[in-house]
């Protein structure tokens, strides 16, 4: 009979560990990735676009249009634009009282908030879209036939989510 070497022991122990993991998974003693998803729900998230230069008449992103979204430089899909608000860049007027006025030095520069809807998988850590957790601060790119803008997610709302409260602040942009 042949002696069992070190390499043989490593192979045998690897097979035994793989069988144990498979047994624990089959008996539901080990949590797999699909068990972490608690629900699927519609979400709405806002993308803040800072310093967009537009020299044309209209803002290129329109309400009820589709925009292709890229999350962390990974292409995802086309999503519905629920709302678009944009305004010219503002500055504090140095003349008289403190008044906020349009920046005369940058007449073609706008800040915009684009509201987008999608269906997300809800986990303990939050909403997951396209394999990415959708959270505030996440860099995204919105792309259409006439535009490609880089922005940041500034708000995420899950339908029926009672943890997300409206701040009560209303910003009129337009």
What can be said about this structure in brief?
The protein is mainly beta and 174 residues long.
Which characteristics define this entry?
disordered C terminus; 174 residues; two-stranded antiparallel ribbon; Elongation Factor Tu (Ef-tu), domain 3; 2 domains; six-stranded antiparallel β-barrel; mainly beta
General description of the model:
- This protein is mainly beta.
- The protein has two domains: 1-30; 35-158, Elongation Factor Tu (Ef-tu), domain 3, CATH 2.40.30.
- It has one helix and ten strands; from the N terminus they run H-E-E-E-E-E-E-E-E-E-E.
- The chain has one helix at residues 6-26; strands at 39-53, 66-71, 74-88, 90-93, 99-102, 109-123, 126-129, 132-133, 139-143, 148-158.
- The protein has a six-stranded antiparallel beta barrel. A two-stranded antiparallel ribbon has the order 4-5.
- Strand 4 (90-93) and strand 5 (99-102) form a beta hairpin.
- The radius of gyration is 25 Å and the shape is elongated.
- 12% of the residues are buried.
- The model is unreliable at 162-174 (pLDDT under 50).
